[in-house]
Amino acid sequence: MAYIVPIHRPSSIRHALKLNFLAADEECLVVAKANRLEFYTQKPDGLALQHSQALYGRVTMLQKLRPALAPTDHLFVGTDRFMYFTLSWNREKKQTQTEKTFESVADNTARESQTGERCQVDPSGRFMTLEVYEGIVTVIPLVQRGKKRKQESEIALMGDPVPQRVPEMFVRSSAFLRTRSANEKPQLALLYEDTHSRVRLKLRSLGFNSDNTAELDDGELYAGELDIGASHLIPVEAPIYGALVVGETSVGYYDVDTKKLVTVPLEEATIFVAWASVDKQRFVFADDYGRLFLFVLDLDDKDKVTSWSLHEIGQTSRASTLVYLDAGCIFVGSHQGNSQVVKITGEKSLEVIQTFQNIAPILDFTIMDMGNRSGEGQTNEYSSGQARLVTGSGAYQDGSLRSVRSGVGLEEYGILGEMDSISNLFSLKSDPSSPYADTILVSLVDESRVFRFDNQGEVEETDQLAGLDLAESTLYAANISQGRILQITNSRVQITDIEGGMTISEWTPPGGHSITAASANDTHILLSLGRGTVVALGIEGLSLIKEKTYSAKRQISCIALPPKSSTVCFLGFWENSNVSVCSIDSLDVINSTEVSTDSVPQSLLLTQIFPDQPPTLFVALADGNVVTFSFNATTNILSGKKSIILGTRQPTLRALPRGDGLFSVFATCENPSLIYGSEGRLVYSAVTAEKATTVAPFDTEAYPGSVVMATSEDLRLAHVDPERSTHVQTLPVHETVRRIAYSPALKAFGLGTIRRVLKAGEELLISHFKLVDEIQFRELDTYRLNSDELIECVMRCSLPDGPDSNDRSERFVIGTAYLDDDNAMAHRGRVIVLEVTEDRKLKVVTELAVKGGCRCLAMCDGNIVAALIKTVVIYNLEYRSESTPELVKVATFRCSTAPIDVVVNGSLITIADLMKSLVILQYSKGEAGLPDKLAEVARHYQTTWATAVAEVDENTYLESDAEGNLVVLTRDLNSFSEDDRKRLVMSSEMQLGEMVNRIRRIDVQTASDPIVIPRAFLATVRTLPTLSCLTKRF
Amino acid sequence: MQPQHVFHRSIGLEHPDVLKRATASRLIYALQPSPVTFTQPPPGEPHDEPQRAHISGVNAIAIDRFEGRYLLSGGADSSIAIWDLEAPSSSSSVGASIYTPMIAAGKTAEQHKLGITQVCFYSFDSLAFLSSSYDHTVKIYSSETLVPTMTWNLGSVVYNIDISPIAQHLLVACGTQGPNVRLIDLKTGAATHALPGHSGAVLSTAWSPTREHVLASGATDGSVRFWDIRMARGELGMLDLEDPVGVLGKISHHRHTGRAQAHRGPVNGIVWTEDGRHLVTCGHDQRIRVWDTDTAANTLANFGPMVRNSGLAPIIPCLPPSQYLLLERDLLFYPNQHEILMYEMFEGKLLKRLKRPEQKRFSEQTVGKGQLNMKDRVTALAWRHHDTELYAAHSDGSIVAWKPRTQEDVDLDEEEEEEREAKQGSKKRKRGLLEDIYQDLTKKKITFGGS
Name one GO cellular component term (chain B) (predicted). Predict the structure, then answer.
């Protein structure tokens, strides 16, 4: 079994729309990010997120609808599951609600539209059209009020969809033309390519026929020539009417009255990708190179178009959608780069007001560390959320390197002092009237120390404070009412006055017992004296309420009091690992529950995690588990047991205030975690504080909301984020970062990049291999490939240094393919071995021209495995002469179609084929002069358009395909039949809905019997999820 | 494979289908005969030479559409065999694999007295299949045992059977020598339902892939009729080769109902396109016609003068899956005597003539015994589902696999050949050198000239 956990939400934007969704008088922007809808309103400083909604399925279209009786606009959403529905906003619940689930229009036999899915609403509001399949326009009548009185009560009026077959295939753009009167039939204009690759424009009228079903008429074809690159059809509003036909080399205006098209060539050819209308005369266009243009129609006094102008305003990300917001602001939604809000500030200038980070599309990534900076990708299973990945994101001019780290961020302010073996920390106020704490009491093994902060943040150690006993280790310290401080040490409990340092009251355990554990709240103190004795004291005068000694069999393991005054306390017992709710007055057990079968409770903490819910009791067990219960204060019952494993040692728990009377819990063990409530659930998230042994909240004036944190060597002041987030740092490269290889030894990245340049109207792709410093992200050297040569793969490896030496040194190997399909060329790609010199420059060691492009590279048994088109070849780097090595072919294997990804484990080479799923090869060195052999050992006999593969476990492979499916394939080596051993069998599958570009295996150290082992990271075109494999079968 | 398609797919610029269609259609255009042999050794005597798949000719083949793994073949001598396409019994490095049947039933088992006319797998799994035969019977078999679980005797030659790929009604449409389309209900075992209308033997039937009650049939009277099996009043309409317009929206009740002809001669092949929007028919007038099923109009695609069609046995064209082809560039493979013609379906343009190499044919001498069809003829075609392979049944008893062999494959083969030669060459040179030395030592040198 396998399951998947996302690290980063989808951030690529393909669709956006402006409508009055949230309120009738306020426009809002709805943005579709893969399977998530986000609603923004415009604020002076940019867009503010108002609501976010996840959907089942990826959004493929958005449209605005205004049913006659509705106060606000409804949102029509289409998904890639062919499900369509309308949403409206419920003001009371502050949620979206489905107005009409519009059944799927899926047609298994029809072909999906090649040119994108479109949805248009006729300007008179009578019809909506969907173009989902080639050759089919689905018409949905939006029955108007008055036409059919019976349906008036229905809020979202939508008729049944009527599929209409049209002979027009390859529709590039469609639009409803504006009509002069409401009685005119709406006209749907289709810009399409016919079977002879000519671009045509056809206008079809849409109306009800006699039996009240909607029907498209045969329409009329525009007879003239159209720009071969015509791509967009833009309806022009009244009173101008007509439509613009925007192409690569010209812009034309189609006049509906004269049925003529006037075309004016562009000064410079470009590819327009998106448009938005500013007003009836002005439009903004965006092109493929990220340029934004303003297009203005000039009119005569009869509102007839006389001429038009187009000029560039400035540079943005490459837009997939444009929305004109207001006051010169334009939302640029982008799939390839960051989305932006830009403001037109002048004739030819614009300013970026707001940027929405976008990590998509991720072409490749590398795992830098798994949260413990060990560098080898080794870590234990508890910190999967803490890995740092570096991704190659974006395309062309928006290409960038992004460093992604997820988890709760921890920012260290500084080290307060070096001291070892800190056992506990307490923050105190020396001024009881101040809202801020200013003193830290550090409890060491045999003493306590006190540090005071002034309001500037300067810190100094004081010898004494308010009569605190510093000669002993402190078990508990806190400010209590009336300007007093409560301190509990091993030998006594004392309450002192802050002002004078006078001891107000004191209690020492009878009979020379020492106090082993303590807990206190506003009214009570609970002490454990060892040997099963528990003492309850009242705060006032430290009066003894009850002393109770439990039998030798019932040893106390931990104690706790509720944070606020209460009649109960919590005791944990060794025996049966029980946790009991006891009355504070009698210390008699009211209720008892077993928390674990094989461990013992070691620490207890009751705190308020969720608003308006009973508090939560956390029980830390000795084996690293944390068990939580919901505690009902009226019935004293513990319920809702949940358990999670945080480490292998007993975690210590500390509540950190989050504000509004809520707390989160900081658990310190091998990998510290922050436990907090989110959307009604407990969230356990790793914190970037590897060495923390104990923490305490420390809300000082100079550093509000911070914590003090003890490590095994020192004491630090830090800030902890309230919850988990993904931290992304960006380094713009302005080229597509297609491949990343990271060399820890060289402390450098090897990047395979692709840049697009326009030369005399022709698009050229230029590939580079760049060496980039790890820390400064500085480019050290660049190796340029030939023109028309595309970088396909980059690998770091170690190869022999010289003819005789056994030394191996770090090398980068790159594989390339030539773009053109000219068969006259003998060689279709290259394999190049590069070394990094001492002054960190690239130098070619050797190169080899190959007959097919080199798709991927891997290392197997010290040899280079190169997956060429159609073959997998094993090359050995041989030094035939003293200085220049050569790549010598030692073995080959013929693939089915074309290899797309290669993974090597030992001598097993797994190849994902473009079309034919997986094949596993065994490489064996030739013995006694025989040549090396490459033989097929197993295969997955299915047609799968694979995109990536990883070996996630022994004989277990994770494969992704182009349709967004993930499959886990296993090979049963224990089977008796040879056929079964040769056959990969699918053990689980899921539809991710996103195409995966790269799967990287991670190796984590695990305890003996973990339930879940994280196995691989996956990067998709739109987002970055992580995978965990469940190894046990239930 | 175009590197830029892969790159554009990975950045989300192009839909993954673009690469898929481009790659797969390139493979389909590169179909070549592959060195794969289907052989069924006759029981008893061991043979060195590979034998044919069915000794007296293969009449019908079908491949299961679930896994694309099992090939079912029926012979002219009523033998039946199932082959596992994923498990060749032996294979060599150059892709020359030899298949032997997983399970086979020879004519000795008295499965059919006369030859098989058609085989097809059951609609919803590959564990059962149907066969029709010249001996008037239709049988349903269990694929695992090859034991017929039910036999229907229809009283006349059954030329063609078809079972709907989508319908739950489990009706098998049978084209028989009589003028009725006969329906066999697999649920009840009844074979009483008949659709009267044709005036000659029904040679072909085909269920619509999208509308479960719609059936098309073609007969020796040259008509192609549509039926809705729920309706009592007979056919829905018929195709008229002289009607290039059709009736918009509905299948025509044509002016001259009952006389409209789809072909000027017997119609012995009908196949629907996957989306049910078009129907392809073949007739003895040496024509292939493509019809728009919405309007029943003849699309007037002209397939040229190469088309040959004779005999009453079904000649059914094979349509590769359209998801593997560029839009509106659907292909059609037509079994034309001894070769296969590859056409563009809507234009009727002949793209390629697929002929198998000479040496592949079994010569007359090796055939010798057993009755043999006089001429080598392609009798049936089958597309391997989920793949880009075409299988052809031949009347000389062989099954030929057509697999893609692209320019890259050719280049690689050449390269490998060169390498092999280079290796052998170096050996030869060595041997030659040794030979020379040996000759020098043993033979006396003959010199001319005076000395």
Answer: nucleotide-excision repair complex
Yes or no, beta carbons of A111 and B19 under 8 Å apart: no
Asked whether the beta carbons of residue A765 and residue B275 sit closer than 8 angstroms, the reply is no
Domain stops at, among A673, A696, A725: A725
User: Domains in chain A: how many in total?
Assistant: 3
| Least confident among A86-100, A583-597, B108-122, B403-417 | B108-122
E-assigned strands of A992-1023?
996-1001, 1003-1005, 1012-1020
Q: What's the pLDDT tens digit per position in B414-427?
A: 888 888 888 777 77
- Average pLDDT for A26-53: 89
Superfamily of chain region B34-414: YVTN repeat-like/Quinoprotein amine dehydrogenase (2.130.10.10)
Taking CB atoms and an 8 Å cutoff, what residues of chain A touch B24? Answer: 915
CATH assignment at residue A696 = 2.130.10.10
Q: How confident is the model at residue A149 (pLDDT cuts 50, 70, 90)?
A: very low
- DSSP E strand stretches across B208-296: 214-219, 224-228, 235-238, 267-272, 278-283, 287-292
Interface of B with A in 166-225 (CB under 8 A): 209-210
Residue A204 identity: R
Give the model's pLDDT for residue A931: 83
Write down the mean pLDDT value for chain B.
Answer: 84
Q: Which of A109, A853, A945 sits opposite B274 (nearest CB)?
A: A109
The beta-carbon neighbor of A790 closest among B3, B16, B322 is: B3
Bridge partners, residue A989, by sequence: A967
- Considering only CA atoms, which of A966, A974, A878, A868 is closest in space to residue A913? A868
For chain A, say whether B135 makes contact (Cβ under 8 Å): no
Residue of B11, B86, B407 with shortest CB distance to A395? B11
End of a domain among A42, A71, A104?
A104
Say if A772 falls within a structural domain. no
Residue at A706 is within a domain: yes
Name the percent of chain B lying above pLDDT 70.
86
- Mind spelling out the 3-state secondary structure of A921-976? EEEECCCCCCCCEEEEEEECCCCECEEEEEEEECCEEEEEECCCEEEEEEECCCCC
Q: Is A409 on the interface with B (CB under 8 A)?
A: no
Provide the residue type at A210 as one letter.
S
pLDDT in tens, A504-536: 888 888 777 788 888 888 888 888 887 778 888
B435 touching chain A per CB within 8 A: no
Vertex B398 angle, CA B395 and B401, to 5°: 120
Residue B99 has pLDDT above 70, yes or no: yes
Any idea what the CATH number is for the domain that residue A59 is in? 2.30.29
Q: What's the whole-number mean pLDDT along residues B249-275?
A: 75
Are B41 and B49 in contact by the 8 Å Cβ rule? The answer is no
Residue A383 has pLDDT above 50, yes or no: no
Buried b (16+ CB within 10 A) or exposed e, B213-229: bbbbbbbbbbbbbbbbb
Q: How confident is the model at residue A146 (pLDDT cuts 50, 70, 90)?
A: very low
- Two structure tokens written together for A631: 């505690």
- Predicted-complex ipTM score: 0.85
HEC readout, A340-390: EEEEEEECCEEEEEEEECCCCCEEEEEEEECCCCCCCCEEEHHHHHHCEEE
Report pLDDT digits (tens) over B143-155.
Answer: 998 888 999 989 8
Q: Give the domain extent around A24.
A: 11-104
- Whether residue A748 is contained in a domain is answered as no
- Whole-number pLDDT of residue A376: 36
A504 interfaces chain B, CB cutoff of 8 Å: no
Contact criterion met (CB below 8 Å) for A707 and A698: yes
- Residue A1020 has a pLDDT of 87
- B240-261: average pLDDT: 64
- For residue A640, the model assigns a pLDDT of 81
Phi/psi for B439 (5° steps) reads -60, -45
